[in-house]
Specification:
D-Maltodextrin-Binding Protein, domain 2; globular; 14 helices; three-stranded antiparallel beta sheet; alpha/beta; five-stranded mixed beta sheet; 2 domains; 329 residues
């Protein structure tokens, strides 16, 4: 009799566990770049069980130089993508209905980093210089900035020469470019680590130049917002993700360790990831995930103010929603 009771209890426990596993809603998140501190909040949410507590089974897909998040979600490879608003709006205008559902990053980490020896001290000094620029959707804020400065990007004497920059800092180190694109939390420190001291560099933050655009938002396709069950799932995802970001800010070193544990490439280092998480926390500080509509509108105005070659040609409609964050709150 006793054996039967033990067996029955064990069977019941397994049934409950199986039921719990079946109940977890699958959701796929596509990152904009490789596994690193830039995405610490999501890895923390998964590692600390915040997604599981919300009844979610979240798969986090790292990005890379050959991964375009809009293409991934268009092909059905993800439910949610991390992208910059300029890229998302440009993609939306081309016909893919991406919608911002949350904005964990309040500030931009984008900047141009120049060698001091070039004589560049202000943006007007860019004229006639060679500037390294990332493409694949990352070029939009830069192109908009140059248009605001009245500088053409065709390499002529009255503009700048654009060097298509790989995702490294080699053009500055090898003096192929006078300035290169860097993020406050990543490539800038790669330049420092390469041996160029900070006092030999001049930086221009997009935030300081009033041309910053929103970065690292969460985007879905419009059809997801038309599905009540998906809306519920997305609300749980956003709430758990923001809990992950809160934890990362409170425990930056642990967050960096969690990122390293998820780095299948083995390319990341503890020093760099701890530094990156610390810088990323400055960009997410004060965010509850709710999109600042005024900041979104500033992004739109910046992109529209592109002279003869604007990033987008008209104000978008339906490009963001508070439907998910309202439900999450």
């Amino acid at each position: 009799m006793k054996n039967k009771i033990v067996f029955s209890l064990g069977l019941a426990a397994m049934t409950l566990m199986a039921g719990s596993a079946l109940a977890a809603d699958k959701l796929v998140l596509q990152l904009k770049w490789v596994t690193q501190g830039q995405f610490a909040g999501y890895y923390v949410a998964k590692d600390k069980g915040f997604y599981e507590e919300a009844g979610l089974d979240v798969e986090i897909k790292p990005g890379g130089p050959d991964v375009a998040p809009p293409q991934v979600i268009a092909g059905g490879g993800a439910d949610v993508v991390v992208d910059w608003m300029p890229s998302a709006l440009a993609t939306r205008e081309k016909g893919l209905p991406l919608v911002n559902i949350a904005q964990p990053f309040k500030r931009s980490g984008m900047m141009l980093t120049c060698r001091k020896e070039t004589g560049i001290t202000k943006p007007e000094d860019f004229k006639g210089k060679t500037l390294g620029v990332w493409f694949g959707g990352n070029e939009y804020p830069f192109l908009s900035w140059m248009n605001h400065l009245g500088l053409k990007t065709d390499g002529g004497p009255d503009g700048v020469t654009v060097l298509k920059q790989g995702f490294n800092v080699d053009p500055l180190i090898q003096k192929q470019a006078d300035c290169i694109s860097t993020m406050t939390y990543n490539e800038y420190w790669q330049v420092i680590d390469a041996g160029i001291p900070a006092d030999q560099l001049v930086t221009f933050k997009y935030e300081d130049e009033k041309v910053a655009t929103l970065e690292d938002g969460l985007y879905v396709l419009q059809k997801s917002l038309d599905d009540p069950k998906m809306v519920e799932k997305l609300a749980k995802f956003v709430k758990a993700s923001m809990k992950g970001w809160d934890y990362a800010r409170a425990n930056p070193d642990e967050a960096a360790t969690i990122v390293l544990d998820n780095d299948a490439s083995g390319a990341q280092t503890e020093k760099h990831q701890k530094r990156m998480v610390a810088e990323i926390n400055k960009l997410t500080e004060g965010s509850d995930g709710v999109l600042d509509v005024a900041a979104a509108n500033r992004t739109v105005e910046t992109l529209l103010g592109g002279g003869s070659d604007p990033v987008i040609t008209k104000k978008p409609e339906g490009a963001w929603t508070t439907k998910i964050t309202d439900a999450a709150m």
